[in-house]
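In response to reviewer comment 3 from the previous cycle, which asked for concrete evidence that the modeling workflow produces usable outputs, we include below a single protein chain processed end to end. The sequence was submitted unchanged, and the resulting structure tokens are shown without manual editing.
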Amino acid sequence: MEIILTQDMPGLGHKDDIITVKTGYARNYLIPKGYALLATKRAKKIHSENLRQRAHKEEKIKDEALELAGKLEGTALTIGAKTSSTGKIFGSVNTIQIAEALQKEGFEIDRKNITLSEESIKNIGKYKAGIKLHKEVTVEIDFEIVAE
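The workflow returned the following structure tokens.
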């Protein structure tokens, strides 16, 4: 069954993608929850007109994301954490602390758009984090965990 996604769905597609899914998944979950619309001829025609009108706006947003990515490229963050004498962190460093450190540097990045290079960071050292600024623009930044 063909559907049009009304919002980004991880593992399925981005907003306004026309995809094919199983009928039960579409009728019982995606359409009732408002995540998708049935892709009829009329809906496809309206969808293509909306995409055509939105293309210019999307290009501007992508250019802004590329500009921000250029600024983030050279950024190196230092995050302080309480540690034991062996260099092990009490707790772990997560995307919230990285988002706060970026905010101190002057970048407003949502923590949901940040992915860590490792599952959990529990030791002092240098790590990498990926930041998704646009569906086609991602940038990787370096950050270092130091003892407070």
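The chain has a mean pLDDT of 89. We consider this sufficient to address the reviewer's concern, and the full set will be provided in the supplementary archive.
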